[in-house]
Each structure stands twice: as C-alpha cells, then as structure tokens.
C-alpha cells in the first residue's frame, strides 16, 4: 500500500474512534509533512484521498477540517402543505409536571464552570455596594450589555450596548417583542413544527398563526413571501440556528433572504436565537439579524441553553422598535435581578464564558454521537432521525407508529418526552417525537431512553 493511503487510513481510524471529532482542524500540509517526515506531494495526496471519501473538507484560507459524520439513519421528511391562517385553540404546556432528562432541552455544567461561576458571583456581590437597595435599570445593567456587545463582536455580530435590552430569559424577550410589534388578533408566521412554548405564548396573547413548512435548509420562504405580499402576516417568529424541535440549522442564504423579506415588506421578524452559540463546530453562525439593514429583525437570545436556565437572563436587540420595546418591557417588569446580571457580566469579561461555551460544544458533539449510535443500534432502519449540527435535541419520525396507543403508554409510564403533536396546530406530526440529548447516556437518562425504545418498538406496526 502506498504511503499516502497508509496515512489516510490512520486518519480514518482516528476519526471513527472519535479522537478527531467533526469540525476539528487537521494539521496543515507543511506541518503534517514535517511530523510524518514525508514529502508535500504525499501529504497532498493523503488529504485529497480523505476529501474524496468525505472524511475531511477544505475551507478557503482556513485549512482542512474533519467533515460532519454521515448519519446511519435517514433524516426526517418534512411535511409539505399550503399554509393558511389558523387559531391556537389547544393548550401547549411548556412546563409539564413530569420532568425527566429526555424532556426539557437542557444539559449540566461541569465542575470547573460551576467553580468559576461561584467566583464571579462573589466578585459581583462585592461590587454591588449600595446598589443592593436600588431597583435595576429596566433596560439592563450597562456592564452586562457592554460585556455582551464585546463578546459577540468577536464573532462578527456587532451592536452597541445602548441598543440592547436585558430580559428575564428568551421567552420574556420574545413576549416583549410581540407586544412591541403586534396586537391582539394579528397573524404571526411561525415554522412548522414550532417550539411548543412559542405556540403556548401566541395562544395566551390571542394571536393567530400561519405555519410555514420546514425544509432541509430552513423554511419555505416562497410561502412566507406569499403571505407577506398579500399582507396576511403582521409579524413572524423563527428559530434560525439549530432550530427547536427540528434540529435544522437555517442556512446563511436563508437567513439573509429572511432579513431581506423583513425589510422589503417592512414586517417585523422576531429571531429566536437561544441555541446560537451551541454549534458543534468551533464557530458561531451569523444570525439573520446580521443581514438586517433597516432594523426589522428583533434578535432574541439567552444564556439559558449556553450557561444555565436557572438565571432567567436573556436579551433582545429590537432594532427600530427599541423605544417601544423598552416601554413595553419596563411596564411589565422592574428589570432583571442585578446580582445575576453583574455575575454573568463578570463571567463573560473574565473569559470564562467563552471557555465554557467551547467545552459545552465539544461535550454536546460527543453526546450527539453517543445518542445517534445507540438509537441506530436499537431502532429499525425505517425510523428517521435528525442530524443536527448544534443544539441539544433530536427529532425522530417513526413510520407506522400507533400514535394513540404510544401516547397512552408514554403517559402510563410517566416518561418525559415531547410528542410531535405539541409542536403544531396541524395534524402532521403524530408519528414524531423530540428528545433531549444534553445528559450523559447513563443512569436515569439511559433508563428512560431504553424505556422509550421499548415503547417505540412495541407500538410500531
């Protein structure tokens, strides 16, 4: 066997064993030639061989990287339909009484992050001083707004601190955005399927909806534009990065087109970007807000997924709606707890947040590999499973699932998963379900996953 093929096989073994995770940078050509004491032509042939087989990919002026792994299951087929205006007539609970590791989209912090967070809280309490007796700034603590501005600027997402509003989590940011740019009875465009918490919120706020079908690279923008052109839609809400529950990452072209539509038709689009920083690869994708020229995209985010849901801390970049947004949020809130804001600002400024996010990405990538491999081993090949490039949820489509008996069995066993019907007002996802993959595949998480697999197999014909 030639030297370059031996070298290529060595890399394949390392990638398959997980020692070189997807997205990891490969050695440069010159570096590899020196390490292996081979010629440049041998190294070039090795990388060409790996690239032709789909193991690595090249990025212009950046180098070579391990390619995303090929899924062992086929991915879900998205229901295609003509979208129409409808009402949210069903209750969509986002906080069920039973909460298990496969239900709520969350993960756990490692010991080092917890230790550094404790230090940030201690330092922030010392800085609080007399402000302990004051209400926080309703727009948000300036130190935190500046810390977020500096942090995101490093990923080419630029905004000034005075353009940002700090909120009590991402859902709080989205609610204030809806109040700022829509009224009761207005129609809001959403993706189909859509996070059940958004459906619940829209129902509570007496908004109508238009569900836009999902595609492999995002949503059906042609149908969205049709509704915008006919003035049927007053606003829209879309999760754009590592979409929940689909596991899709809206492409850069889609995000740019989405921002262009918002500006062309002057219709506000609320961007739910709570999973933005949880890309499995070592980069943060740009949001649709990046392409927004006229301020019609209201960009909402949070540390609930990237750091901790318990802090209830999020933000919104409302663009042209800033003044009314501040007014609406201030009317409903006295601001966000100041000690938490100061502690998170310190955690970001110290550099620990960026370090923590890098570790969380690597951890979630490994967890995704474990869950996908386990599901592939224990489910029929006919089951379709999403292949997300970020976030912490998987979307499963189970052909020939007896959804009624399956739902009863899930309830009887008090198994916490999210059934497909929760994510739509349409009868399209009865054979689907969403699971969280944020917990290590051991203990209670593995026990519940094994129970889920048993129930799926029992109730599939």
Comma- or semicolon-separated keywords:
461 residues, 9-stranded mixed sheet, 14% strand, 4-stranded antiparallel sheet, 15 strands, alpha/beta
Distance from first to last alpha carbon: 48 Å
- Helices and strands, in N-to-C order? HHHEEEHHEHEHEEHEHEEEHHHEEHEEH
Proportion of β residues?
5-15%
Question: Which residue ranges are poorly predicted, with pLDDT under 50 across at least 5 consecutive positions?
Answer: none
Tertiary shape = globular
Structural class: alpha/beta
**Percent helix range:** 40-55%
Query: How many extended strands?
Result: 15
Rounded mean pLDDT score:
92
Major sheet summary line: 9 strands, mixed
Radius of gyration: 23 Å
Count up the helices: 14
């Amino acid at each position: 066997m030639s030297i370059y093929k031996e070298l290529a096989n060595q890399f394949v073994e390392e990638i398959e064993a997980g020692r070189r995770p997807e997205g990891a940078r490969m050695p440069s050509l010159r570096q590899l030639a020196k390490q292996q004491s081979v010629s440049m032509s041998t190294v070039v042939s090795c990388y060409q061989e790996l690239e032709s087989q789909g193991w690595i990919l090249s990025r212009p002026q950046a180098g070579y990287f391990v390619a995303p792994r090929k899924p062992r299951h086929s991915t879900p087929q998205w229901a295609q339909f003509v979208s129409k205006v409808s009402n949210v007539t069903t209750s969509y609970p986002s906080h069920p009484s039973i909460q298990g590791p496969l239900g709520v989209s969350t993960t756990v912090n490692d010991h080092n992050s917890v230790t550094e967070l404790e230090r940030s809280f201690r330092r922030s309490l010392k800085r609080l001083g007399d402000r302990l007796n004051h209400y926080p700034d309703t727009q948000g603590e300036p130190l935190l707004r500046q810390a977020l501005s500096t942090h995101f600027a490093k990923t080419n997402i630029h905004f000034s601190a005075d353009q940002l509003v700090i909120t009590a989590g991402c859902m709080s940011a989205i609610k204030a955005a809806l109040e700022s740019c829509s009224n009761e009875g207005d129609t809001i465009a959403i993706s189909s399927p859509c996070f059940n918490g958004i459906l619940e919120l829209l129902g509570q706020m007496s908004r109508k909806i238009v569900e836009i079908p999902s595609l492999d690279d995002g949503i059906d923008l042609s149908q969205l534009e049709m509704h915008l052109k006919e003035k049927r839609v007053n606003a829209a809400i879309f999760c754009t990065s590592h979409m929940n529950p689909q596991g899709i990452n809206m492409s850069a072209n889609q995000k740019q087109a989405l921002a262009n539509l918002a500006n062309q038709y002057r219709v506000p689009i609320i961007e739910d970007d709570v999973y933005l920083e949880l890309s499995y690869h070592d980069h943060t994708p740009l949001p649709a807000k990046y392409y927004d020229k006229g301020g019609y995209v209201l960009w909402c985010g949070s540390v609930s997924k990237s750091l901790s849901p318990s802090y209830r801390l999020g933000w919104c970049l409302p663009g042209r709606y800033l003044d009314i947004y501040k007014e609406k949020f201030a009317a409903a809130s006295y601001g966000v707890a100041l000690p938490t804001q100061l502690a998170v600002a310190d955690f970001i400024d110290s550099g620990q947040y960026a370090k923590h996010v890098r570790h969380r990405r690597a951890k979630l990538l490994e967890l995704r590999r474990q869950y996908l491999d386990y599901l592939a081993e224990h489910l029929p090949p006919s089951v379709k499973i999403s292949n997300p490039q970020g976030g912490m949820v998987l979307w499963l489509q189970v052909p020939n699932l007896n959804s009624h008996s399956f739902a009863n069995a899930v309830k009887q066993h008090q198994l916490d998963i999210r059934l497909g019907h929760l994510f739509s007002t349409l009868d399209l996802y009865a054979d689907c379900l969403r699971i969280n993959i944020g917990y290590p595949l051991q203990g209670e998480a593995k026990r519940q996953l094994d129970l889920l697999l048993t129930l799926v197999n029992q109730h599939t014909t």
